[in-house]
Amino acid sequence: MLTKNLKKLTYRLHYRGIKELDIFFGRVVDRLPSLSLDEIASLELLINESETKIYRWVLGFEEKPTQYERIIEKLLT
Length: 77
Hints:
This protein is mainly alpha-helical. The protein has a single domain (4-76), classed as DNA polymerase, domain 1 (Orthogonal Bundle), CATH 1.10.150. The chain has five helices and no strands. The protein has helices spanning 4-14, 19-29, 37-46, 51-58, 66-76. It is globular, with a radius of gyration of 12 Å.
């Protein structure tokens, strides 16, 4: 059963501002139970960034900040 925080995170991952990020993060929801607490904390910080920044980092148009590099790479695999 999902905790209240994971339910909120799940909702936020499904409803982003850019359709491509909705799809990308929608796939992540299925993997939430396999993520460590540190990875979930990184993911929560990541989704607080602007849509444009996240989009550019995920697609490789801009270098990922060090603090998000690990979680983005994990989510891309």
